[in-house]
Design goal:
By secondary structure, the protein is an alpha/beta fold. It has 16 helices and 18 strands.
Length: 477
Amino acid sequence: MIQFEFVCTIPEFENDYMDIIRAFSSHVFVSEGADKLCLSLERIKDDVYECTIGYKDQKSKTRFCVDERFLEKKESDSYDIKYRAQLKRHSKVALYDFLVRLTGQSLPYGSLTGIRPTKLYHELAGKGIDADSYFEDVLRVSPQKRELIAEICRNQKDFYNVKNDEIDVFVNIPICVSRCVYCSFISAQLDKVRKLVDPYCDLLIKEIELTKKIVKANGLKIRSVYIGGGTPTSLDEENFKRVVECAATDCREYTVEAGRPDTINSQKLKIMADAGVNRISVNPQTFNQKTLDIIGRKHTVEDIYKVYDEAQKYNFDINTDLIAMLPGESFDDFRYSVDCALKLAPANITVHTLALKKGSTLKVEGYDNSGEDIASKMVDYARDTLVNGGYSPYYMYKQKYMSGNLENVGYCKEGKACIYNIDIMEEICGIIANGAGGISKRLFANDRLERLANPKGLDVYLERGEKILKDKEEFFS
């Protein structure tokens, strides 16, 4: 393990540099007082810069020129932002190259640390740039991951025809019946917030009704509605029905992330079907009982099959989630889960790679998810098996602290891609978000994107209810 203290001369880029360093966490350790790894960036002339990196007796100097193809007109508001982004991108590549030489290890996504690789790929193609070559020559992305990104972008092409008057609606129910050990979301445990559930749903319904007024006043058309969480089906049947019926509207896709089998029953399935929901999730995460017990899922493998069979009585497209690198699982354990999911033949199968986030029990307990080889083997098996089984990858995203520096990928049968998943990852459509922790996004003609975030905690959301409604109305006016 190589130890160093990281020092850079560009404080505004330091967090991005640390993302690169963290991606090498299996091989390097940042420690105050250790030998310094120093990075500096200097302007040589005009748009030419030199990035100098040194550690002990090793030193590198990398010169690069700002790529004008990524810049706006000099008089535009975003020119400086785009210019700085170029400096950050190329100096990150220089740091990545240095760490590769220092450790003898490369990463599947090279210098890419952002959560949306496909969005960048689309952006490059839109500028007439050979995206595959750029990902290889500039960003150092591996051939296998370039192929995955390119395939996903091809599979998304029919969804990019978003009209200016179209919008998505998100409704958040940040409540779960219990907390999984890998979870870092703001979701509250039901037994601890039970007294807040009724007032939360009251305010949430007010916000949804305001959303519908905003949609009508602005002449908008809703592409999709997505009720997520948390676990929306954690609500009692009365509140669940109130929210699901209020959110119902004329749209192409209406999703409820039912998720946990222990919260789904025939009454809630009927409520969703009667309200026009056409897509739900039944998420096993694993088909191994020992793992379900370890991660804090309060249901059995048998419950998964029972709920799935019940849901099939309705005309839902069903998604199932799996997670690679769960604690205690071997490659054979994960392979078994993939094979079980494939036999169910849902419309969508989403394969996540475990990410150790701050606030999760696994992170607090020091769980080690850094096994790159087994993580890659799991993810590769899932992709090969699902593609051979008639599924195609249609959206993806990356997170910090993921096993093997890998990714989450959604796979679908032909014609079964989730519109909302594509829209939110590629940021091609505005979103009106409702509920605690919801983040609305408004897109403008020049690709500018503005966000409006609701408070995260249920109690704070309730305290600020009137202000939340007022701010939302102003934001979309």
